[in-house]
Write a structure and sequence with these properties.
This protein is mostly helical and about 160 residues long. Helices cover about 55% and strands about 5% of the residues.
Protein backbone atom coordinates (compact mmCIF):
# COMPACT_ATOMS: atom_id res chain seq x y z
CA UNK A 1 0.00 0.00 0.00
CA UNK A 2 1.34 3.40 -0.94
CA UNK A 3 1.66 6.19 1.65
CA UNK A 4 -1.07 8.10 -0.21
CA UNK A 5 -3.58 5.25 0.08
CA UNK A 6 -2.62 4.68 3.72
CA UNK A 7 -3.16 8.42 4.36
CA UNK A 8 -6.60 8.23 2.79
CA UNK A 9 -7.49 5.16 4.84
CA UNK A 10 -6.37 6.90 8.04
CA UNK A 11 -3.43 4.65 8.89
CA UNK A 12 -0.59 6.91 7.73
CA UNK A 13 0.10 10.63 8.13
CA UNK A 14 1.23 13.00 5.42
CA UNK A 15 4.82 14.29 5.15
CA UNK A 16 4.25 16.60 8.15
CA UNK A 17 2.63 14.02 10.42
CA UNK A 18 -0.97 15.16 9.77
CA UNK A 19 -3.75 12.66 9.26
CA UNK A 20 -6.68 13.12 6.92
CA UNK A 21 -9.01 13.66 9.89
CA UNK A 22 -6.61 16.23 11.36
CA UNK A 23 -6.56 18.27 8.15
CA UNK A 24 -10.32 18.05 7.63
CA UNK A 25 -10.83 19.32 11.18
CA UNK A 26 -8.80 22.49 10.63
CA UNK A 27 -10.50 25.89 10.45
CA UNK A 28 -10.72 28.08 7.36
CA UNK A 29 -7.82 30.32 8.42
CA UNK A 30 -5.54 27.28 8.63
CA UNK A 31 -6.74 25.96 5.26
CA UNK A 32 -6.01 29.36 3.71
CA UNK A 33 -2.60 29.83 5.29
CA UNK A 34 -1.10 26.36 4.85
CA UNK A 35 -0.15 25.40 1.32
CA UNK A 36 1.10 21.82 1.37
CA UNK A 37 -1.97 19.79 2.30
CA UNK A 38 -4.03 20.12 -0.88
CA UNK A 39 -1.65 17.79 -2.74
CA UNK A 40 -2.50 15.05 -0.22
CA UNK A 41 -6.25 15.73 -0.21
CA UNK A 42 -6.50 15.88 -3.99
CA UNK A 43 -3.56 14.07 -5.56
CA UNK A 44 -2.83 14.16 -9.27
CA UNK A 45 -0.91 11.86 -11.60
CA UNK A 46 1.65 14.63 -12.22
CA UNK A 47 4.20 16.20 -9.92
CA UNK A 48 3.35 19.41 -8.10
CA UNK A 49 5.43 22.43 -9.02
CA UNK A 50 4.30 24.18 -5.83
CA UNK A 51 5.19 21.39 -3.41
CA UNK A 52 7.99 19.18 -4.77
CA UNK A 53 7.94 15.69 -3.33
CA UNK A 54 4.21 15.65 -2.71
CA UNK A 55 2.43 12.40 -3.57
CA UNK A 56 1.34 11.56 -7.09
CA UNK A 57 -1.28 9.06 -8.13
CA UNK A 58 0.13 5.91 -9.64
CA UNK A 59 -2.00 3.73 -11.92
CA UNK A 60 -2.46 1.37 -8.97
CA UNK A 61 -3.60 4.26 -6.75
CA UNK A 62 -6.12 5.37 -9.36
CA UNK A 63 -7.44 1.83 -9.63
CA UNK A 64 -7.68 1.56 -5.84
CA UNK A 65 -9.71 4.78 -5.64
CA UNK A 66 -11.94 3.63 -8.48
CA UNK A 67 -12.67 0.28 -6.80
CA UNK A 68 -12.62 1.09 -3.06
CA UNK A 69 -15.70 2.91 -1.82
CA UNK A 70 -13.92 3.91 1.42
CA UNK A 71 -11.26 5.81 -0.48
CA UNK A 72 -13.87 7.58 -2.60
CA UNK A 73 -15.95 8.39 0.49
CA UNK A 74 -12.95 9.92 2.22
CA UNK A 75 -12.26 12.03 -0.86
CA UNK A 76 -15.89 13.15 -0.80
CA UNK A 77 -15.37 14.15 2.84
CA UNK A 78 -12.36 16.20 1.74
CA UNK A 79 -14.43 17.73 -1.06
CA UNK A 80 -17.20 18.74 1.35
CA UNK A 81 -14.66 20.36 3.68
CA UNK A 82 -13.05 22.33 0.88
CA UNK A 83 -16.44 23.37 -0.49
CA UNK A 84 -17.28 24.76 2.94
CA UNK A 85 -14.00 26.67 2.84
CA UNK A 86 -15.11 28.22 -0.46
CA UNK A 87 -18.65 28.99 0.75
CA UNK A 88 -20.21 26.15 -1.22
CA UNK A 89 -22.04 22.95 -0.31
CA UNK A 90 -23.39 19.71 -1.75
CA UNK A 91 -27.18 19.50 -1.76
CA UNK A 92 -29.13 16.31 -1.15
CA UNK A 93 -29.50 15.82 -4.91
CA UNK A 94 -25.71 16.10 -5.37
CA UNK A 95 -25.72 19.57 -6.91
CA UNK A 96 -23.11 22.04 -5.66
CA UNK A 97 -24.54 25.42 -4.66
CA UNK A 98 -23.80 28.45 -2.55
CA UNK A 99 -23.71 27.70 1.19
CA UNK A 100 -24.95 30.02 3.93
CA UNK A 101 -21.39 31.33 4.33
CA UNK A 102 -21.04 32.26 0.62
CA UNK A 103 -21.00 36.04 1.17
CA UNK A 104 -18.35 35.67 3.87
CA UNK A 105 -16.11 33.24 1.96
CA UNK A 106 -16.30 34.36 -1.67
CA UNK A 107 -13.97 37.33 -1.21
CA UNK A 108 -11.22 34.86 -0.36
CA UNK A 109 -11.18 33.38 -3.86
CA UNK A 110 -14.03 34.39 -6.14
CA UNK A 111 -13.80 38.16 -6.47
CA UNK A 112 -10.12 38.33 -7.43
CA UNK A 113 -7.41 35.93 -8.59
CA UNK A 114 -5.73 33.94 -5.80
CA UNK A 115 -3.90 30.65 -5.34
CA UNK A 116 -7.30 29.12 -4.61
CA UNK A 117 -8.01 29.00 -8.34
CA UNK A 118 -5.14 26.53 -8.66
CA UNK A 119 -6.51 24.54 -5.74
CA UNK A 120 -9.93 24.33 -7.37
CA UNK A 121 -8.37 23.21 -10.64
CA UNK A 122 -6.49 20.51 -8.71
CA UNK A 123 -9.70 19.39 -6.99
CA UNK A 124 -11.55 19.08 -10.31
CA UNK A 125 -8.72 17.09 -11.92
CA UNK A 126 -8.25 14.81 -8.93
CA UNK A 127 -11.96 14.01 -8.65
CA UNK A 128 -12.08 13.04 -12.31
CA UNK A 129 -8.94 10.89 -12.07
CA UNK A 130 -10.21 8.79 -9.15
CA UNK A 131 -13.63 8.02 -10.57
CA UNK A 132 -15.65 10.92 -9.16
CA UNK A 133 -16.33 12.46 -12.56
CA UNK A 134 -19.94 13.35 -11.77
CA UNK A 135 -18.87 15.24 -8.64
CA UNK A 136 -16.26 17.12 -10.67
CA UNK A 137 -18.90 17.97 -13.28
CA UNK A 138 -21.30 19.23 -10.59
CA UNK A 139 -18.62 21.45 -9.09
CA UNK A 140 -17.67 22.75 -12.51
CA UNK A 141 -21.33 23.47 -13.32
CA UNK A 142 -21.67 25.41 -10.05
CA UNK A 143 -18.56 27.45 -10.81
CA UNK A 144 -19.74 28.27 -14.31
CA UNK A 145 -23.15 29.30 -12.97
CA UNK A 146 -21.59 31.49 -10.28
CA UNK A 147 -19.30 33.16 -12.81
CA UNK A 148 -22.28 33.89 -15.05
CA UNK A 149 -24.61 35.07 -12.30
CA UNK A 150 -22.40 36.91 -9.80
CA UNK A 151 -21.44 40.42 -10.86
CA UNK A 152 -18.25 40.44 -8.79
CA UNK A 153 -16.64 37.38 -10.39
CA UNK A 154 -12.92 38.04 -10.59
CA UNK A 155 -11.70 34.65 -11.78
CA UNK A 156 -9.62 35.42 -14.90
CA UNK A 157 -10.33 32.22 -16.85
CA UNK A 158 -14.06 32.55 -16.15
CA UNK A 159 -14.18 36.09 -17.48
CA UNK A 160 -12.47 34.93 -20.70
CA UNK A 161 -14.82 31.99 -21.29
Amino acid sequence: MTPLLAFYLGSHPDHRGRTLAHILGKDDDWLEGVHDYIQWLFPLDEHSRAVPGSPTLSRADVEAFRTDSRLRQHMLDALRRMLGFYGLRVCDDGAVTKAPNWAERKSNWFTHPTHNSLRITRILKSLALVGLESEAARLQACLLDLCASEADCGIPAASQA
